């Protein structure tokens, strides 16, 4: 112990930093403490406070909670007042006490007093004007809590200053208390504990999507366009300050990390020296406290800055991808590239950029460690350096190959997701066709190819992990072996304790950053590929130069319609002019419109022509969605109201779809509803207590309702020009008449207000309102051209007469069902992993791979940890007799290294190659089977985006994150157990604290896991709206461009993105908290070990503390790996939980199958169909859409199902196909009750042509004969019969890849008919199969059906057009789900029947 009587006067008034040992053993001078632990931090705090107060002064008051005011006023403010008072008193005592007074004491005390007062002012301002804890105050008081410790120790070591000791102890205690108070969240005074996304606190605007995109866009514009990695450079330029803010704490972290081997050296030397001063023990313990507490705080600060950088990058990239998507032409969208970029590339960038600072920091740490190691083992230090260098060089080519392998894997993911999205979007048609098993085979095959493709990437990843782990175990072995051999040859000193354990710690500090570098560097390199893919995607969007991206789609102004003055119309310049134009869909595809010459002026323009003549292509060209390869296309159009042939319906309310997010005007909205024939539909929604929602792609609406909602959107926009693509397909004559009189008639809205409209249609009633302006034949040459002037009319008032009694077939589904599904998904998201979930996953992985993983992890833990104990025994033997039994120690050391290496490589192979392959295929198969086996009603209740989230996000977690986390947890757990066992053996009394430590860890993990798991799964759920918005945007690009809704759509995407970033960033914050707690726990364990061994010095060997501290050095890493990987595993297992619950809870069509009948192979052999008192509905909670219907159809009879829109026609077909619930009665075919027939078998045995043609990825042959039952000759014959063989043969014949987007809707219906010609069945079902073809093509299709489907086949056809009604044997007229009339066409037309009225109404409209 120091003798204070020998302490020189003024020893504490020097900078030191170490005080004279005669004053105090191992302590700083007071002047050094005043300068660096008081003046410096308080000065920095005061510098920051002033601008922060200025910022808060301009901010609005956000918190007015009384309870918060009470809490903040009486707790933190009271503590600050106490600290302020105590510091004034302490400063007064210090200036009058010579033993502790220095030249900086007064300045230090005054600065502390001023800083405390400033902290009180800042605390009050932060409480009132922010909703988050103050970062400035938390950082300041955290630093103060650490810097006050050395002064507290110093004061207690100096005798006769009792008052100052007590004062400073109180100051320290209150400082810790104020730190805890200021760290408390304010949200508990504002809201209850959040249960979902809506309850999460907002994140600061610097991380918002709009701000991030603006910065990235500005940087993108500055960077040279020719730069190869332009997006990568732009990213770092945009977020450079956020990136640089992580460098200072990382450098400080490096400095403190290398303080650990010096502590080990000092402790081992002190323990091994008998005459060493006893006061060094407590001093060394204090140094351990300072180092490990500082490490914990600095690591938390470092990761906070890094995670903010990642969150900003993610927000910027997702935003710019969406912006690029809105800038693409619809034909440029290939598969689901945008979804893949957002889901795979951006997420991989966010995941890998966590280690962006580790790359340079690891290189720096390797150099420092190498230099320090050379001081211990001289030339032998080159061994780990060589090993490290070889590992790095070997990693480089592997990393390069990994980039290419990863690219191919992502491309396969993209293809699978595109096929899955297409399947989910057209699941109704797929089920009607009985192609569920075929779709399952197609998507499963794509999944198998994806897994096979990813195997190369995973094997390369195995090489990377193995190469990066070799230095960890091989470097100590090789270094000590080399040093021992050299010492034997030179007869130098053998390896001693201090030298061995200092070197071992330095080798760890050398190989650990190298391991990080070898793993992080290839990942960072691989992200370059992701940036490059996004870069190319962004560049493609710039091809769209003819659209005003900043324009808005809603023209304001009064809704009162004014009289249109014809004299103001100008016809001098055409709206659109084609001059010798050759049009193609992309620069690389063939021309589809040749030498087109056309002028479209204001007024009425009608395009008619047969299927495939190019009508839709002309309209898309007008909107700028095609390419002009030759000639020119000139347009004066700005905002256009566009209705595409397939209505674009977003998942929302009908009002949202019609208004497009524009300002709502009720009177104008009501007129729009009435003019588009939707009044009765809206009443039906209200009458049936059904929310006016649309569902995914309009799943809750009938086909006619979707057409009318799209038309209503065009009317509501008030745009001057309307482009309408076959908007009357699927509408009955009465609805067409209503719409015509309101909109298209001589006194309709369009004429009265001078709107110009360009219409492609087959409906002659509309065409005959004036002469044809443009007529297209199969070769699009102009036949006639004229202009119809817009006349002067006043808009008539809304029609008061009721529309045709129509009740939509599909308005009966309660949207509350959809809400319940979403609520169920949310409740599932809040569950953690359970043993049953782990059992489900391990069952998918297989027992043998799981057992092998545990065995190899155990080998690795034993080999790597017991080697440290063996090294102690070796050095202790050397201390007694140098190099005694050298080869025994070297041999066992070699064996331990071999076991460790075997455990790493074999364990990685098990989970990277075996487990991922088996679980990836198994879980995807379960998910796909369940999805396809679910009833059609299920898809009407749940968002497609939610299902796609499972196929993308959840499957991605299953593919990589889950097995990686599982393997890391197993290896980390084995390693922690091994280390704790050794520490208990060495530390003796430490074993008493192990149960308490494990208990603390258990409760921390349990407390933390619930929150982290919930937030992680909320993070997954929060991405579903963003996914859905991306998908809807891709499907509606033409409409968005036409209406100029790009900006509005981007704002919506930013809103969804900001919602998704809240759980994303909060998850990072939770990780930081966990890391901080674990660091503090490991620091506490270290302090306990050091304090125990130093206080009982005579009971412990010097080697024991060396082993213990080296194990603690790696225990932090192992414990962190175990807890974080367990938590990540629990969060990742949420994906398995979601899949398992989806598989378990999703209803299956087989569940409602009664006792199955024995179905003969030739069934149905006759085609007799009986509906016996059938009542059917879409859900058990809704009103029946088919009510007590009885109908018998004879074998070979041709029956037409007619009726107004919403009368139940499609529902009758769906009931026949067992796609809706038959609540009462039964349906029989050839005497077999259909409820006893497996659903897919039933649909496969029937021949159905749905209204929406369905095609799959594959060849023409596969799409026209998906079951492989027909010969090439019969397929070719069918194509020739529908008149499309010439085009098919020109594009490669039957083996050519089929892309449905290249064929018009009408051509697809012809191909669907060709597919039906190859199906052998006694029953043919036509669901508006001719709705999208012209009259000539309709006649051709009808002739084919009359010829090919002779009297031996029973035909049931839903018809809106009645030109060929005489070809049917019987007419069934439906109304409100009931049969109104049923007789032959002649009989119904000869009497005053409801059908006659319908027929005459249609005839009058077409003549």
Describe the secondary structure blueprint for this structure.
Blueprint: H1 30-58, H2 66-74, H3 76-95, H4 105-129, H5 135-157, H6 162-183, H7 209-222, H8 230-238, H9 240-244, H10 247-257, H11 259-272, H12 280-326, H13 337-352, H14 356-377, H15 382-425, H16 427-432, H17 436-490, H18 497-541, E1 576-584, E2 591-600, E3 604-608, H19 615-622, E4 627-635, E5 640-643, H20 654-659, H21 666-675, H22 679-687, H23 703-717, E6 721-725, H24 733-744, H25 749-752, E7 756-760, H26 764-767, E8 774-775, H27 815-829, H28 835-845, H29 847-880, H30 886-933, H31 936-939, H32 944-987, H33 990-1035, H34 1037-1043, H35 1046-1095, H36 1102-1145, E9 1169-1177, E10 1186-1193, E11 1198-1202, H37 1209-1216, E12 1221-1229, E13 1232-1233, H38 1239-1245, E14 1247-1249, H39 1260-1264, H40 1272-1281, H41 1285-1290, H42 1305-1317, E15 1323-1327, H43 1335-1348, E16 1354-1358, E17 1370-1375, E18 1378-1383, H44 1385-1390, H45 1394-1406
Parallel strand pairs: 3-7, 3-8, 5-6, 6-7, 11-16, 11-17, 14-15, 15-16
Antiparallel strand pairs: 1-2, 1-4, 9-10, 9-12, 12-13, 17-18
Helix pairs in contact: 1-4, 1-5, 2-3, 3-4, 3-6, 5-6, 5-12, 7-8, 7-12, 10-12, 11-12, 11-18, 11-36, 12-13, 12-18, 12-35, 13-15, 13-18, 14-18, 15-17, 15-18, 15-32, 17-18, 17-30, 18-36, 21-23, 28-30, 28-36, 29-30, 29-32, 29-36, 30-32, 30-36, 32-33, 32-36, 33-35, 33-36, 35-36, 40-42
Describe this structure in words.
Among the domains are: 4-189, no CATH class; 573-814, Rossmann fold; 834-988 and 1100-1146, Up-down Bundle (ABC transporter transmembrane region fold), CATH 1.20.1560.10; 1153-1246 and 1321-1406, P-loop containing nucleotide triphosphate hydrolases (Rossmann fold, 3-Layer(aba) Sandwich); 1251-1319, 3-Layer(aba) Sandwich (Rossmann fold), CATH 3.40.50.300. Helices cover 62% and strands 8% of the residues. It contains 45 helices and 18 strands. The chain has a six-stranded mixed β-sheet. A hairpin with a 2-residue loop joins strand 17 and strand 18. The chain starts with 29 loop residues before the first helix and ends with a helix. Residues 64-74, 187-194, 543-571 and 767-832 have low confidence and may be disordered. Its main location: membrane. It is a multi-pass membrane protein. This is Vacuolar glutathione S-conjugate transporter. GO terms for molecular function: ABC-type transporter activity; ATP binding; ATP hydrolysis activity.
């Amino acid at each position: 112990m120091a003798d204070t009587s020998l302490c020189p006067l003024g020893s504490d008034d020097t900078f030191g930093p170490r005080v004279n040992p005669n004053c105090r053993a191992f302590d700083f001078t007071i002047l050094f403490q005043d300068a660096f632990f008081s003046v410096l931090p308080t000065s920095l705090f005061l510098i920051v406070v002033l601008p922060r107060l200025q910022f808060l002064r301009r901010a609005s008051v956000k918190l007015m909670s009384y309870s918060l005011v009470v809490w903040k006023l009486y707790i933190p403010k009271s503590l600050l007042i106490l600290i302020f008072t105590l510091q004034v008193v302490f400063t007064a005592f210090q200036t009058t006490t010579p033993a502790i007074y220095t030249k900086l004491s007064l300045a230090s005390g005054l600065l502390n007093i001023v800083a405390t007062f400033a902290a009180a002012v800042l605390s009050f301002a932060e409480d009132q004007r922010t909703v988050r804890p103050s970062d400035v105050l938390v950082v300041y008081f955290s630093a103060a809590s650490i810097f006050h410790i050395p002064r507290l120790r110093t004061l207690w070591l100096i005798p006769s200053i009792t008052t100052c000791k007590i004062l400073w102890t109180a100051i320290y205690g209150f400082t810790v208390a104020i730190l805890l108070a200021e760290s408390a969240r304010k949200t508990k005074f504002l809201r209850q504990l959040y249960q979902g996304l809506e309850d999460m606190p907002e994140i600061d605007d610097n991380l918002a999507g709009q701000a991030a995109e603006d910065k990235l866009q500005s940087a993108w514009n500055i960077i040279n366009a020719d730069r190869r990695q332009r997006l990568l450079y732009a990213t770092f330029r945009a977020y450079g300050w956020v990136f640089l803010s992580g460098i200072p704490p990382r450098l400080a972290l490096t400095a403190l990390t290398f303080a650990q081997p010096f502590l080990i050296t000092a402790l081992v030397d002190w323990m091994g020296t008998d005459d060493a001063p006893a006061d060094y023990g407590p001093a060394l313990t204090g140094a351990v406290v300072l180092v490990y507490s500082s490490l914990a705080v600095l690591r938390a600060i470092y990761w906070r800055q890094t995670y903010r950088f990642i969150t900003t990058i993610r927000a910027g990239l997702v935003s710019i991808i969406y912006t690029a998507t809105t800038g693409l032409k619809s034909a440029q969208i290939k598969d689901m590239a945008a979804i893949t970029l957002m889901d795979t590339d951006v997420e991989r960038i966010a995941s890998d950029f966590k280690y962006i600072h580790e790359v340079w920091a690891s290189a720096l740490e390797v150099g420092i460690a190498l230099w320090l190691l050379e001081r211990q083992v001289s030339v032998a230090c080159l061994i780990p350096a060589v090993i490290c260098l070889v590992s790095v060089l070997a990693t480089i080519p592997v990393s390069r190959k990994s980039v290419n392998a990863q690219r191919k894997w992502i491309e396969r993911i993209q293809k699978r997701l595109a096929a899955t999205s297409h399947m989910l979007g057209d699941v109704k048609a797929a089920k009607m066709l009985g192609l569920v098993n075929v779709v399952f085979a197609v998507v499963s095959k794509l999944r198998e190819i994806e897994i096979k493709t990813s195997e190369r990437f995973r094997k390369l990843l195995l090489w990377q992990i193995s190469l990066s782990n070799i230095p960890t175990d091989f470097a100590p072995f090789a270094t000590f072996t080399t040093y021992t051999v050299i010492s034997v040859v030179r007869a130098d000193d053998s390896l001693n304790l201090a030298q061995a354990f200092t070197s071992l710690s330095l080798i760890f500090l050398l190989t650990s950053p190298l391991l990080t570098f070898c793993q992080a560097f290839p990942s960072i390199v691989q992200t370059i590929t992701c940036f490059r893919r996004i870069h190319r995607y962004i560049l493609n969007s710039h091809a769209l130069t003819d659209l005003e991206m900043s324009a808005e789609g809603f023209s304001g102004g009064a809704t009162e319609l004014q009289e249109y003055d014809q004299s103001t119309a100008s016809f001098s310049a055409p709206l659109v002019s084609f001059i010798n134009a050759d049009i193609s869909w992309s620069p690389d595809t063939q021309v589809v419109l040749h030498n087109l010459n056309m002028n479209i002026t204001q007024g009425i323009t009608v395009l008619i022509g047969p299927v495939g003549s190019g009508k839709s292509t002309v309209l898309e060209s007008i909107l700028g969605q095609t390419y002009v390869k030759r000639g020119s296309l000139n347009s004066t159009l700005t905002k256009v109201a566009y209705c595409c042939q397939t209505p674009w319906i977003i998942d929302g309310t009908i009002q949202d779809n019609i208004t497009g997010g524009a300002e709502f005007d009720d009177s104008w909205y009501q007129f729009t509803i009435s003019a588009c024939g939707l009044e009765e539909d809206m009443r039906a929604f209200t009458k049936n207590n059904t929310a006016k929602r649309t569902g995914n792609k309009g799943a809750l609406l009938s086909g006619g309702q979707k057409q009318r909602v799209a038309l209503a959107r065009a009317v509501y926009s008030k745009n001057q020009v309307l482009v309408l693509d076959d908007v009357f397909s699927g509408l009955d004559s009465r609805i067409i008449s209503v719409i015509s009189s309101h909109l298209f008639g001589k006194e309709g809205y369009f004429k009265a207000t001078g709107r110009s409209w360009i219409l492609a249609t087959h409906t002659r009633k509309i065409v005959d309102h004036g002469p044809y302006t443009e007529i297209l034949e199969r070769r699009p040459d102009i036949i006639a051209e004229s202009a119809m002037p817009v006349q002067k009319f006043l808009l008539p008032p809304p029609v008061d007469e009721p529309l045709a009694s129509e009740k939509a077939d599909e308005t009966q589904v309660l949207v509350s069902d959809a809400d319940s599904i979403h609520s169920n998904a949310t409740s599932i998201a809040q569950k953690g992993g359970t043993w049953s979930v782990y059992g489900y996953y391990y069952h998918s992985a297989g027992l043998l791979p799981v057992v092998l993983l545990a065995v190899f992890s155990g080998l690795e833990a034993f080999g790597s940890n017991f080697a440290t104990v063996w090294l102690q025994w070796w050095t202790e033997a050397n201390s007694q007799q140098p190099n005694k039994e050298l080869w025994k120690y070297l041999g066992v050391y070699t064996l331990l290294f071999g076991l460790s290496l075997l455990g790493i490589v074999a364990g990685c192979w098990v989970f990277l190659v075996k487990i991922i392959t088996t679980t990836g295929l198994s879980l995807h198969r379960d998910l796909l089977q369940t999805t396809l086996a679910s009833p059609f009603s299920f898809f009407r209740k749940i968002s497609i985006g939610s299902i796609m989230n499972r196929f993308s996000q959840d499957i991605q977690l299953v593919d990589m994150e889950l097995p990686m986390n599982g393997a890391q947890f197993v290896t980390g757990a084995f390693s922690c157990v091994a280390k704790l066992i050794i520490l208990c053996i060495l530390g003796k009394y430490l074993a008493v604290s192990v149960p308490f430590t494990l208990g603390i860890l258990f409760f921390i993990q349990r407390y933390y896991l619930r929150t982290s798991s919930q937030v992680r799964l909320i993070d997954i759920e929060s991405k579903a709206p963003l996914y859905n918005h991306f998908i809807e945007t891709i499907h509606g690009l033409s409409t968005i461009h036409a209406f100029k809704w790009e900006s509005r759509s981007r704002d919506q995407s930013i809103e969804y993105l900001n919602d998704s970033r809240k759980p994303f960033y909060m998850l990072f914050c939770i990780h930081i908290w966990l890391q901080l707690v674990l660091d503090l726990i490991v620091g506490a364990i270290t302090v306990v070990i050091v304090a125990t061994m130093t206080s009982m010095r005579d009971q412990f060997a010097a080697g024991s503390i060396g082993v213990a501290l080296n194990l603690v050095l790696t225990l932090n890493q192992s414990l962190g790996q175990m807890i974080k990987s367990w938590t990540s595993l629990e969060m990742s297992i949420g994906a398995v939980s979601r899949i398992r619950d989806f598989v378990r809870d999703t209803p299956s069509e087989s569940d409602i199958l009664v006792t199955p009948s024995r179905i003969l192979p030739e069934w149905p052999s006759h085609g007799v169909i009986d509906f016996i008192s059938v009542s059917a509905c879409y859900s058990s909670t809704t009103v029946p859409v088919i009510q007590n219907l009885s109908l018998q159809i004879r074998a070979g009879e041709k029956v037409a199902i007619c009726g107004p829109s919403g009368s139940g026609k499609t529902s009758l077909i769906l009931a026949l196909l067992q796609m809706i619930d038959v609540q009462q009665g039964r349906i029989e075919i050839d005497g077999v009750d259909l409820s006893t027939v497996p659903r897919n078998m039933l649909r496969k045995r029937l021949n159905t042509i749905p209204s929406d043609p369905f095609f799959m990825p594959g060849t023409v042959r596969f799409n026209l004969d998906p079951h492989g039952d027909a010969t090439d000759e019969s397929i070719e014959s069918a194509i020739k019969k529908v008149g499309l063989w010439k085009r098919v043969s020109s594009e490669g014949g039957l083996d050519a890849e089929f892309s449905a987007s290249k064929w018009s809707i009408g051509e697809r219906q012809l191909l669907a008919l060709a597919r039906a010609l190859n199906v052998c069945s006694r029953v043919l079902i036509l669901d508006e199969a001719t709705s999208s073809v012209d009259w000539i093509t309709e006649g051709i299709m009808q002739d084919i059906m009359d010829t090919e489907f002779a009297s031996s086949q029973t035909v049931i056809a839903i018809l809106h057009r009645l030109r060929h009604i005489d070809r049917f044997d019987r007419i069934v007229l439906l109304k409100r789900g009931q049969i109104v009339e049923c007789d032959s066409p002649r009989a119904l037309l000869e009497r005053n029947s409801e059908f006659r009225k319908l027929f005459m109404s249609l005839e009058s409209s077409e003549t």
